[in-house]
Amino acid sequence: MAIATIEPTTGTTLRTFQALSPEETEARLHLAEETFRTYRHTPFADRKRWLARAAEFLDSEAATFGRIMTQEMGKPFEAAKAESQKCAQACRYYVEHGEAYLRDEPIDTGKDRSYVRYEPLGPVLAIMPWNFPFWQVIRFAAPALIAGNVGLLKHAHNVPQCALALEDLFLRAGFPRGAFQNLFIETRDIERVIEDTRVKAVTLTGSEGAGRAVGAQAGKALKKVVLELGGSDPFIVMPSAKLEEAVETAVKARLINNGQSCIAAKRFIVHDAIYPEFERRFVERMGRVKVGDPMEPQTEVGPLATEGIRQGLHAQVEKSLAAGAKAPVGGKLPTGAGYYYPPTVLTDVPDASPAAREELFGPVAVLFRAKDVEHAIALANDTPYGLGASVWTREEAEAQRFIAGIETGMVFVNAMVASDARLPFGGVKNSGHGRELALHGLREFLNAKTVRISAGALPPPTEASANE
After folding, report:
1. Is 137 within 8 Å of 126 (Cβ atoms)?
2. Do β-strands 224-228 and 201-205 pair in parallel, antiparallel, or remain unpaired?
3. Residues 262, 300, 359, 436: which is the catalytic one?
4. Which residues of 127-137 are buried (b: 16+ CB within 10 A; e: fewer)?
5. I need a surface site. Which of 167, 310, 333, 454 has the fewest CB within 10 A?
6. pTM: predicted TM-score of the whole model, two decimal places
7. Catalytic residue selected from 228, 279, 300, 444
């Protein structure tokens, strides 16, 4: 598959890039290993200063980075700028909290002196997607680099300029040349890099199929792996909810990033008592969404990232309609240039149809009716995925039943699901395993080394030795 910038608004190929030769890939792997040997011992103050500098660039150059994102994958420009600024916030989070998260953790074992020491593993291969081309990378890179690991980025084939901009970002911020490197390699070459003994761990954000392949390859090579895969997140609305707020948030939650988000709400499960009114308002609002040029400020939804994604989504919609689903708005493939797809609502969806069983990666929402709380929970869990869930209720007991009953990695009450550097991010079931962000994400790629020193065997540590 070509490594190229293809503008989603026109379908025009703007730039192409050559994949690395085996010799060039080898040179980058060698540099990563050599850099790690010294970088892991770099004073924390230096890593902290460099990451803080990266945050400054992400803020001050948000418009520049945003244009690259919009040009390569079609997200609205305002959202792209916000993505860069969110990346800056994540960097600053680890600048502020990284040292405490890496500090030795004392364990009470009586008279003996025991603790857990957290050490970096080495070069980490990150296989990243196109939908949040900066944010997905930063939420791996910021904790990895602050902890003393080095990064190797295999980015999606359609966002090569984002990959180059990120590599340049860390270099300009002061990180050593081999601390963060871009790998322009073909998909068929990924397994060889995973198997390389210099690569110590793997993280992937992508499809379920990619997760299964990479997980199997990492397992065969006995490498630690974090998998953040697809989702079919439920958005549950109960009679006590503030309906207008729920509807407005539902539209935003479905259409974020042109509907191309693993944590976008995709299945809207609404109590029978309020279903007719919710459907009326939701359909009306989806029908008013402004679709157009992502560089225009008023645009709410831009094009999908590729023609293949658009055709795949439309095929799922058509098969669902043929099975008996209804589309009160949208559902028709537009003519003209670009990879646009209209905001679409599907109702009366048969159980066996794609809309009921598969992830829809685009601006298509599916409505379901629920009889009561238990029925809503059953519908929410009736999916192979388990990433996030949004629940709308003003009853505490009801909210707690949803929190306990829904099989997901995250539950948000009266709010849409969103990633936040302060909160661990990840799922269960076919949505993957492991966590990103917060303390949990930083420690995924660390060796938790147990140390136990017999009482009286060594002199008490000095303050200087304890901080080494």
Report:
1. yes
2. parallel
3. 262
4. bbbbbbbbbbb
5. 454
6. 0.96
7. 228
Nearest to 51 by CA among 153, 174, 167: 174
Q: Identify the structural domains of the chain with CATH numbers, from first to last.
A: 3-229+431-453 (3.40.605.10), 233-413 (3.40.309.10)
Question: Which residues, 6 or more positions from 378, have their beta carbon under 8 angstroms from its beta carbon?
Answer: none
The H or E element that residue 159 is part of is: none
Per-residue pLDDT of the chain (468 residues; tens, 9 = 90+): 799 999 999 999 999 999 999 999 999 999 999 999 999 999 999 999 999 999 999 999 999 999 999 999 999 999 999 999 999 999 999 999 999 999 999 999 999 999 999 999 999 999 999 999 999 999 999 999 999 999 999 999 999 999 999 999 999 999 999 999 999 999 999 999 999 999 999 999 999 999 999 999 999 999 999 999 999 999 999 999 999 999 999 999 999 999 999 999 999 999 999 999 999 999 999 999 999 999 999 999 999 999 999 999 999 999 999 999 999 999 999 999 999 999 999 999 999 999 999 999 999 999 999 999 999 999 999 999 999 999 999 999 999 999 999 999 999 999 999 999 999 999 999 999 999 999 999 999 999 999 999 998 888 777 655 545
What is each CA distance from 362 to 58, 256, 356, 425, 456, in whole angstroms?
27, 9, 15, 21, 64
Output b/e per residue, 357-366; b: 16+ Cβ within 10 A: bbbbbbbbbb
Neighbouring CB atoms inside 10 A of 28's CB total 19
Cβ neighbours for 134, distance < 8 A, ≥ 6 positions apart: 58, 65, 69, 83, 84, 87, 162, 166
- Catalytic residue status for 228: yes
Q: Where are the beta strands (DSSP E) in 27-159?
A: 105-109, 112-120, 123-127, 150-154
Per 3-state DSSP, the chain is made up of helix, strand and coil in percentages (nearest 5) of 45, 20, 35
**Position of tokens 């200087």?**
464
Q: Which residues 6+ apart lie within 8 Å of 375 measured at CB?
A: none
Tracing tokens 């974090």 back to the chain, one arrives at 226
Single-letter code of the amino acid located at 245: E
Pair of tokens at residue 354:
């794609």
Q: Which residue has the tokens 């930083």?
A: 442
Closest CA to 398 of 418, 438, 358, 370: 370
**In DSSP terms, which residues pair with 257 in a beta bridge?**
none
